[in-house]
Write a structure and sequence with these properties.
- The chain has 2 domains: about 110 residues, no CATH class; about 180 residues, Farnesyl Diphosphate Synthase.
- It is mainly α.
- The protein is globular, with a radius of gyration of 20 Å.
- Helix 7 crosses helix 8.
- The relative contact order is 0.09.
- Helix content is about 75%, strand content about 0%.
């Protein structure tokens, strides 16, 4: 099944007029859902349930992701009635997706899967609280930021380890964690391309960790200064360092896939790795162009 088909199946359960009209949803987690669906197809015990399991996991993930877009800052209430309703609808949308997940699995008698995914949600929320606490106290470094990001993205999918058998059971946790890390790094590269803000980015934590005292002070005081952002990104080679980290993680992911000892599975998963390979190639070309 291709990514578009999975997205189409999930949309059947996510579509709601009120949500569609008033709420912009986060990006659908196509990569991780496709990874799960493809690997489940190679597990005889659950292959027949792969469509259901992939759809409900996407619903839970979208519920978590849309809740993350709720603005809890002190300024959140200053956008008037329209802004307040938009925030409320995000909360309701996340709850709605979660209710669809429970309904589908309960109908199918998949009570144990409900337990696994619910426990995963609790663990993800715990990880998020730890991350937000460290960020608030400014006690986070760039590598920890990546680690937390990969943990959060992989949390739901790790709950399927018990559904795997043999070699797959041993390799699945590392596979989904490495894939999630690549997704985080790709997203961080895309942030650098926009150069709109360093807030909540790997680049910010890297500069706060490696930068001079003056640069750290400037970053804290003028986070929205476009000229400063571009200057600091170039000075500390943020794009090049992210590119190197993504190339490293993608190489590790490819090596891990080889250990699955299935040429057929490798061929089916290769399209999921292409965005990572293409991003590093584009980044290198951009860097060379700027040097020229």
């Amino acid at each position: 099944m291709n990514k578009a088909r999975i997205n189409q199946m999930a949309n059947k359960y996510m579509t709601h007029d009120m949500i569609s009209l008033h709420t912009e949803l986060p990006e659908f987690p196509e990569g991780r859902i496709s990874l799960l669906h493809t690997v489940l197809n190679f597990q005889p015990g659950v292959a027949s349930q792969r469509d259901l399991l992939s759809v409900v996991t996407s619903l839970v993930q979208m519920g978590l992701d849309v809740h993350d877009t709720v603005d809890n800052s002190p300024n959140a209430g200053r956008n008037g009635l329209v802004g307040m309703r938009a925030q409320q609808l995000k909360v309701l949308a996340g709850d709605y997706f979660s209710s669809r997940f429970y309904h589908l699995l309960s109908q199918a008698g998949q009570i144990e899967t409900i337990r696994h995914l619910s426990e995963a949600v609790c663990n993800i929320n715990r990880i998020k609280m730890n991350l937000y606490g460290k960020m608030k106290q400014m006690k986070l470094n760039a590598e920890e930021y990546l680690h937390y990001g990969a943990e959060i993205k992989s949390g739901l999918f790790l709950s399927f380890t018990s559904f795997m058998s043999g070699l797959y059971e041993r390799l699945w946790p590392e596979l989904v964690e490495r894939f999630s890390r690549c997704e985080v790094l790709l997203h961080e590269l895309q942030k650098v391309e926009k150069m709109s803000s360093l807030d909540g980015s790997w680049g910010m934590w890297h500069i706060l960790q490696e930068g001079t005292e003056d640069d750290r002070r400037l970053l804290s005081e003028r986070r929205e200064d476009q000229h400063l952002i571009k200057s600091l990104l170039n000075k500390y080679d943020v794009a090049e360092k992210l590119d190197g980290l993504l190339r490293q993680s993608t190489g590790q992911l490819q090596s891990l896939l080889q250990r699955l000892q299935s040429d057929k599975l490798l061929r089916e998963l290769q399209p999921l790795i292409e965005p990572f390979l293409q991003a590093t190639g584009q980044q290198r070309a951009t860097a060379l162009k700027e040097l020229g």
